[in-house]
Amino acid sequence: MDLRVLRYFLTVAREQSFTKAADQLHITQPTLSRQIAALEEELGTVLLNRGGHTMTLTDEGILLKRRALEILDLKEKILNEFKGDDGLIDGTITIGCGEFAAVETLAKICKGYKEKYPLVQIALHTGTADAIQTRMNKGLVDIGLFMEPVSTEELDYIRLGRSDQWVIGLRLDDPLAEKEYITKEDLVDLPLILPERLSVQSELANWFGKDFSRLKIAFTSNLGTNAGVMAMYGLGYPVSIEGAARYWRKDLLIQKKLYPEIYSSTLIAWRRNIPYSRAVQRFIEEIKTFAGADIQ
Question: In sequence order, which ranges of the chain are alpha helices (DSSP H)?
Answer without folding.
Answer: 3-15, 18-25, 29-43, 59-81, 103-116, 129-137, 184-187, 198-208, 224-232, 278-294
